[in-house]
């Protein structure tokens, strides 16, 4: 059973999907901690409800990003994770943090990467007149939202969509794809060596497993 630490900043619906599938035995893993940079994150309550250790590390208590990241890394390492999952964690992580965990650090980003790295992805897709949108599960590298994509979900953009309606529709697809990728990682099917990504022993093409 793999040890999973989830980093969050908010609601935690993706964390919930992963916790549920671990508890149901669909993922060969156990969520051993949920760590938030925000005390108000509902994700911490979700963790407590499942008797999972809930840790808050307020980033504003630190003098610099590097100081926060160093403390966060130390805290995360204390849980001896096999996998670290970013699930709505809304802080950019410094290279020192990413390098220390790079073969076992996953993120979900709400766009069809390489489109729309960064923030406000739903609004940007609508304003560009895109007809489809999606989310990408990827390994994290030092480049922002730039690591190799494992799996993407897609939804149609409807004529009357707002950023909010689109985000809600997309969220449901995230709860499908993120637990799948975590399952593959925990089963040893998905391996990232920091440069190359492979699935069942074959290199994964750019754009992910399909
Ligand atoms: C998710 O939609 C995720 O894709 C996005 O935040 C949401 C978190 O929802 N992540 C980012 O924007 C990362 N830059 P959740 O807290 O309910 O899982």
Automatic annotation (TrEMBL):
Presence of keyword Transferase: yes
Active site: 109
Cross-referenced InterPro entries: Formyl_transf_N, Formyl_transf_N_sf, GART, GART_AS
Catalytic activity: N(1)-(5-phospho-beta-D-ribosyl)glycinamide + (6R)-10-formyltetrahydrofolate = N(2)-formyl-N(1)-(5-phospho-beta-D-ribosyl)glycinamide + (6S)-5,6,7,8-tetrahydrofolate + H(+)
Enzyme class: transferase
Assigned EC number: 2.1.2.2
Pathway where this protein functions: Purine metabolism; IMP biosynthesis via de novo pathway; N(2)-formyl-N(1)-(5-phospho-D-ribosyl)glycinamide from N(1)-(5-phospho-D-ribosyl)glycinamide (10-formyl THF route): step 1/1
Key words of the record: Purine biosynthesis, Transferase
UniProt key word Transferase: yes
Source taxon at top rank: Bacteria
Domain Formyl transferase N-terminal per the UniProt entry, residue ranges: 2-182
Gene Ontology terms, MF aspect: phosphoribosylglycinamide formyltransferase activity
Binding positions for (6R)-10-formyltetrahydrofolate per the UniProt entry: 65, 90-93, 107
Sites annotated Raises pKa of active site His: 145
Positions contributing to N(1)-(5-phospho-beta-D-ribosyl)glycinamide binding: 12-14
The protein's role, per its UniProt record: Catalyzes the transfer of a formyl group from 10-formyltetrahydrofolate to 5-phospho-ribosyl-glycinamide (GAR), producing 5-phospho-ribosyl-N-formylglycinamide (FGAR) and tetrahydrofolate.
Xref: HAMAP family: PurN
Family: Belongs to the GART family.
PANTHER family: PHOSPHORIBOSYLGLYCINAMIDE FORMYLTRANSFERASE
Protein known as: Phosphoribosylglycinamide formyltransferase
Gene that this sequence comes from: purN
């Amino acid at each position: 059973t793999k040890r999973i630490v989830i980093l969050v900043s908010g609601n935690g619906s993706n964390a919930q999907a992963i916790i549920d599938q671990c508890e149901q035995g669909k993922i060969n893993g156990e969520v051993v901690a949920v760590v938030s940079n925000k005390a108000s994150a509902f994700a911490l309550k979700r963790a407590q409800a499942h008797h999972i250790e809930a840790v808050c590390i307020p980033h504003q208590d630190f003098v610099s990003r590097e100081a926060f990241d160093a403390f966060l890394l130390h805290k995360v390492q204390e849980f001896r994770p096999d996998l670290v999952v970013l699930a709505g964690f809304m802080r950019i992580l410094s290279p020192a943090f990413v390098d220390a965990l790079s073969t076992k650090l996953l993120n979900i980003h709400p766009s069809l990467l390489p489109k729309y790295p960064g923030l406000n992805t739903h609004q940007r897709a609508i304003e560009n007149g895109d007809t489809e949108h999606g989310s990408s599960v990827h390994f994290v590298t030092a480049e922002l939202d730039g690591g190799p994509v494992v799996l993407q979900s897609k939804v149609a953009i409807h004529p009357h969509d707002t950023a909010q309606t689109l985000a809600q529709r997309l969220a449901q697809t995230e709860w499908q794809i993120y637990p799948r990728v975590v399952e593959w990682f925990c089963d040893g099917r998905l391996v990232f060596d920091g440069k190359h990504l492979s699935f069942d022993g074959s290199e994964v093409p750019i754009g992910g497993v399909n």
